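Field log, afternoon session.

UNIT: design team B
ACTIVITY: writing a sequence onto a fixed backbone
BACKBONE:
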């Protein structure tokens, strides 16, 4: 680039894209980059180029955590429980306003009054009306949604759906555990139903099973308590009496199954009949398939975390944290009695906890105190109180890229 002539005024706009990129890549956070990318179309082009993003994400590998998306199961009461630390960050103000507006707009969606959330991932929601055969993929940040082609009619009566990378969806069979072996399971078939975002088509797939796990899988597959996705793997919690408590892992990249034995501690824990066995939460640790397992001893306020590598079969105890001190501090500060400790979500090395206070009379929900625990630094943050119900659902929400207040790719509106 030639030097400007003497006496001629220059501005930042006179710089070529490469020097602009050298300045923008040194911004302190992804949130700052999101604000800069809204300045003009040219800066947006620099900020969204693959080469620039690779450099920027090497400097800032973690997306900012904005809070927990909270819902009782549907969109009518959807809200964002903001992380306490983000409220004082000016660089996140625009993103938080955009997310609040997007959540409010979805909660006011009147096409169906009873839309329930099947899964959430990276700003996308899979929605289904309770009484109608429709399925929607909704982009929370742009407010756009598409109605997906309806799959086979018996899918939703016995299957749970999960969002995969790229907007693909998989439905897996579920059969609630029962004592009566004479009652046939709701899902006799052994298939999965996969939706391809690229073709818009559904396909029935018969997943294979690792040879060494065939017998165990046959014995436990009709006793699925619940399922959870971690990365591209769907884990189904089984409680077969003949094989012990275990996980059936469905790798959606290869559509193959394997059995994952739970840590010995969870094998010994007794759960009274009738209590839901959502006794732990899985956590995606990285993009290499390593996962964490987080279990809370509700009555004793003890948190245990195990780690498991994708290529291994053994769990390693990573953390055992006694949280009685935190419970006592919260109880004294708010003058309440703490009943139990629960894990509501776990994401990328951070565990989001809920401390439940004793329920008051004529109260529809429980007064809860939320706190986030970083497992690497063992520091607490985001301690705040909310009134929620025990069955409510929570999804960790991080600042996505692309930023929530930018027009989607291909829009041609003029920049101000």
């Amino acid at each position: 680039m030639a030097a400007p002539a003497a006496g001629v005024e220059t501005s930042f706009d006179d710089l070529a894209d490469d020097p602009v990129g050298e300045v923008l890549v040194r911004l302190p956070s992804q949130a700052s980059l999101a604000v800069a990318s809204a300045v003009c179309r040219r800066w947006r082009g620099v900020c969204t180029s693959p080469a620039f993003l690779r450099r920027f994400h090497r400097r800032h590998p973690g997306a900012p955590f904005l809070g927990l998306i909270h819902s009782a199961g549907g969109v009518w009461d959807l809200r964002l429980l903001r992380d306490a630390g983000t409220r004082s960050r000016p660089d996140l103000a625009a993103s938080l306003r955009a997310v609040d507006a997007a959540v409010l707009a979805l909660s006011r969606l009147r096409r169906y009054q009873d839309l329930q959330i099947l899964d959430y991932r990276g700003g996308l929601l899979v929605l289904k009306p309770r009484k109608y055969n429709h399925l929607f993929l909704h982009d929370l940040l742009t407010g756009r949604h598409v109605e997906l082609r309806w799959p086979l009619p018996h899918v939703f009566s016995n299957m749970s759906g999960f969002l995969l990378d790229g907007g693909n969806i998989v439905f897996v069979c579920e059969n609630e555990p029962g004592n009566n072996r004479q009652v046939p399971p709701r899902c006799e078939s052994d298939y999965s139903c996969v939706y391809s975002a690229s073709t818009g088509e559904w396909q029935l797939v018969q997943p294979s099973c690792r040879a060494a796990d065939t017998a165990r899988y046959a014995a436990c597959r009709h006793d699925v308590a619940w399922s959870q996705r971690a990365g591209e793997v769907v884990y189904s919690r089984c409680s077969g009496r003949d094989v012990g408590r275990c996980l059936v892992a469905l790798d959606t990249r290869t559509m193959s199954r394997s059995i994952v034995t739970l840590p010995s501690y969870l094998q010994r824990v007794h759960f009274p009949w009738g209590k839901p066995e959502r006794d732990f939460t899985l956590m995606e640790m990285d993009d290499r398939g390593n996962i964490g397992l987080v279990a809370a001893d509700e009555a004793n306020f003890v948190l245990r975390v195990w780690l498991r590598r994708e290529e291994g079969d053994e769990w390693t105890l990573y953390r055992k944290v006694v949280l009685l001190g935190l419970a006592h501090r919260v109880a004294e500060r708010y003058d309440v009695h703490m009943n139990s400790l629960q894990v509501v979500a776990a994401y990328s090395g951070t565990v989001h906890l809920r401390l439940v206070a004793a329920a008051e009379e004529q109260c529809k929900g429980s007064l809860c105190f939320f706190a986030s625990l970083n497992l690497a630094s063992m520091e607490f943050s985001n301690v705040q109180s909310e009134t929620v119900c025990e069955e409510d659902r929570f999804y960790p929400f991080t600042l996505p890229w692309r930023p929530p207040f930018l027009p989607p790719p291909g829009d041609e509106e003029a920049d101000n």
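LOG NOTE: Helices lie at 17-24, 30-37, 41-47, 50-59, 93-107, 214-220, 264-268, 324-334.
NEXT ACTIVITY: expression trials, pending approval
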